[in-house]
Amino acid sequence: MKLPFWIAACLGCILMYQSVAVAAEDQNTTVQSVQDTSVQDTQEQQTQPATQNSQDVKLPRWIQKILGEKTKAKGPPEVSNPTPYGETQPTTPLYQTIPGFLQAPYGPPAFGPPFGTTHLLGDWGGVQPWLQKRGLYLAFDVYEDLAGNVSGGKKRDETVAGQVGVTLDVDWEKLLNAGSWSRDLWLHLLVVNGHGRNLSRLFGDNDNQVQQIYGSRGNVIAHMVWAYFEKAWLDRKIDMSVGWIPTGVFFQNSPWVCNFMNVWLCGGEAPTKFMTGGRGWPSGNIGTVLRLMPIRQFYIMGGLFAVSPHAYNGGISGWSWGQDGLGKLSTQVEIGWIPEFGRNHLIGHYKVGVMYDNSRYNHLYEDINGEPWVLSGLPARKESGQTSLWVIADQMLLRHGPGELNGLILGGYYAYGSGQTSQINHTLVGVLMDTGAAWKRPLDSVGIAVLWANFSRSAILAEEAAATHGLPLPGANFGVPYGIQGHETIYEAYYDFHIMDGLSIKPDFQYVNHVGGTRTFKDAVVLSTAVNIAF
Known about the structure:
mainly beta; 40% strand; single chain; signal; OprB_sf; OprB_Porin; Carb-sel_porin_OprB
């Protein structure tokens, strides 16, 4: 199979860099091993400064003169803690750096670039410490993904999809030097600019996206993803967020899902995030989330969100919060258990949740008389309410160092959506992830995944009726199909190279079986390389 030149070149550069970096690096520093300690000792360890092999590449002198010496901030240990949306930097987890996030189910709410507190430009010449002392946490991130299907699909093509993002988290107690009323009161802002073309659409898959960063941002300079206040009480055992919130930031999500590129994983589970009442990142919703976490190992949270009947929540830019037709509500509830097993505290995350949207949606097959609407021409029957449920779990099998995800992890999820109104009604995913500690690359990560989705009986009946009578195939929340649908399976593998603080490169392979859930096109092979720079 002959690869396009640009893909071969990218992979060649990565392999060349890898060999040079391994030869040049001093491997005398190793990952801090986890000792036989109590849970209390482990928690104390997480709050103490520690050193770790950062795999830094030594820069040329002329670059060092421009950037100056980077100041290593004192604080919690830098760990190989793969975080959402492509970053495998030696991050100081936000749940330790930003106290308002401390008791979130997995540390901070899972969100995309920018993220973390690691910066390519160090402390910005003292600017970052000055800002954080005043309660302002600012991050700037650039993410670019070069992808192409080298085989199969409707046609062969290649695209670039990317994103520039800025986050600002404000600690009002520090900023205002105020009293107890402002303790654990935060404002969280995230604005992104997205660009590029959707490769999956080009090779004939309207149901899936093989590129992590694409879609729902609109062709605008600044798309508002979230803007919400967070307030905690009782030593953060009670936490409430109010404002413009993507539901998947808190619900039906996990911190490891966006180590993978495929959007059925990244940004929340499918089909929930493709249902109007559960739209996830980067689509926001006016709403509120209440989280109760009486102990670190257990939480329960509920959310109430306004349902937007439009293609874009908040308009194409995400800033139009006062859209018309916001009279319906989506309710989500989730319960989670976070145990630790054995002397190495092998952490697991187990959660189950449900969503109910009280809006009315068109039945995918039946008209008002119970006949196929694609043939009768009558209006589709309205279904009252839409339901989704999910079960998500991951378990560390071997630990390689401190951190919730620093080790060999087995994970996956099952999710269901109402088949009468959602084209996909069942999804099942399994993943296996690890860091590069075994080959002395502790800040690298590697993973494989199998993703399977089943198309609902109602959607298939409507497609069969239309095809039998020579009519255009109907589409719904997963787009218009190219043929009668059944199921679709994705096989994915990635390796994330940590190049230096704030810079990572991730080659990714995906095999798409039954493109778009049909047999219309040959199975597709997609190769991509993502570059993430956290300035």
